[in-house]
Amino acid sequence: MENDVIPYGRQNITEEDIKAVIETLKSDYLTQGPKIAEFEQAFARYLGVKYAVAVANGTAALHLCTLSLDVKKGDKVITTPITFVASANCVRYCGGEVVFADIDPETYLLDIDAVEALLKAAPKGTYKGIIPVDFAGRAIDLEAYRALANQYGLWIIEDACHAPGGYFLDSKAQKQFCGNGKFADLSIFSFHPVKHIACGEGGMVTTNDERLYEKLLQLRTHGIIKSEDSYSNSIEFAGGERSYPLWYMEMQFLGYNYRLTDFQAALGISQLKRADEGLKKRRQIAEIYYNAFRDNPFIKRQSGIIAGHAYHLYILEVENRLGLYNYLRENKIFAQIHYIPCHLMPYYRELGWQEGDRPRSEEYYKYCISLPVYPTLNDDEQNFVINCINDFYVKQ
Fold it and tell me: Boundaries of CATH 3.90.1150.10 in the chain?
């Protein structure tokens, strides 16, 4: 086959997507218009959650979550080292302290036993919350985390950037979809091009808590409100007589400009219509990879194809990772490494974290590699990836 570059992830933009964006560009609103609410409502329906708030990106979504939960200087929050740094940085933005707990080496997810050990080792009230991550698209058991959080009076922010449409089975064998608001106080998603739903950039916060929802709306737009029932200044000051004039608004606390545009929302609405189709394709690709490396002694795979996994990433643990990575790049296959453990980034090292602090995460990092997974990856391309990997190890 003619081998063009095969990245680990790639957006899928159709003519319908392009048409949706063009129609919005020709409309009266490029931002703060009707497409935002339309996207939020469609996304909320898709997940089965009450409220959704569209924002500029996944990092903004995380920051708004920590702000809405009043994270402040000195507050301790637990998360995983195996995630993109934004999952931890959102706590630091508010002056809080990040405490990393180790991963389960089989699932690569935040290990609930490690989290519980941290909680038991400190007086109640030491920790304020937990940020579990649906890493690679595998949904974490939030029912178990909710039970643990309730024991210690903690909130939960679910980082579901990798897992729209993903789910876990609860104690009653019922599907619990990521971001449905039943166990997490807040959940967040990303619409970066390599994610399931692409808006160029963009993010979403979901919740079933009306109070948090209202706070998110204000924080998203400079802390400004337009509601007569909530104004602090008098009607006279506002320039009205018997009621507040239509132009009036108030900034009541410090917020941010974390808005999504209408043309991004239009793209998101169009992409969301194909979300289940994309999930199905990702799971098919994962199953092919799983079976292809069944007999390769140099490769560790996760055990089986996991029900509810959204397969944003398909990860192998391999011997001679650097050699394989370079060999794939020589063949125009751009595999990726997810992730360098957050606690060993120079910024967090300066805060006191050291090698050996989270050994399972550090061991995972030595061997992990993410293979190409995206809905437009065709059979020839996937077979080429598989053959290159097998050929590399035959030559060892």
Answer: 275-394
- Among residues 267, 139, 259, the alpha carbon closest in space to that of 192 is found at 267
Sorted by sequence, the CB contacts under 8 Å of residue 17 that are 6+ apart come out as 267, 270, 271
Give the other-Cβ count within 10 Å of 200's Cβ.
Answer: 17
DSSP tag of 126: S
Report how far apart, in Å, the C-alpha atoms of 140 and of each of 128, 183, 266, 320 are.
Answer: 20, 11, 30, 29
- pLDDT greater than 90 at residue 133: yes
Class of 6-272 per CATH? alpha beta
Number of H helices, E strands in the chain: 14, 16
**Of 313, 328, 312, whose CA–CA distance to 390 is shortest?**
328
* Tokens 């397969």 found at: 311
Q: Among residues 199, 194, 167, 197, which one has the least CA distance to residue 183?
A: 167
Q: What share of the chain is helix, strand, coil (3-state, %, to 5)?
A: 40, 15, 45
Give the right CATH number for 275-394 from 3.40.30.10, 3.40.1160.10, 3.90.1150.10, 3.40.190.10. 3.90.1150.10
Q: Does the structure show a pLDDT above 90 at 59?
A: yes
- Banded model confidence at residue 303, pLDDT cuts 50, 70, 90: confident
**Looking at residues 187-195, what average pLDDT do you find?**
97
**Which residues touch 383 (CB under 8 Å, ≥6 apart)?**
none
Residue type, 366: K
Is the pLDDT confidence value at 1 over 70? no
Q: Distance between CA 310 and CA 47 in Å, rounded?
A: 13
> Residue 389 is encoded by which pair of tokens?
């990997």
Mean pLDDT of 141-161: 98
- The rounded percent of the chain whose pLDDT value lies above 90 is 97
343 closest CA partner among 333, 323, 357: 357
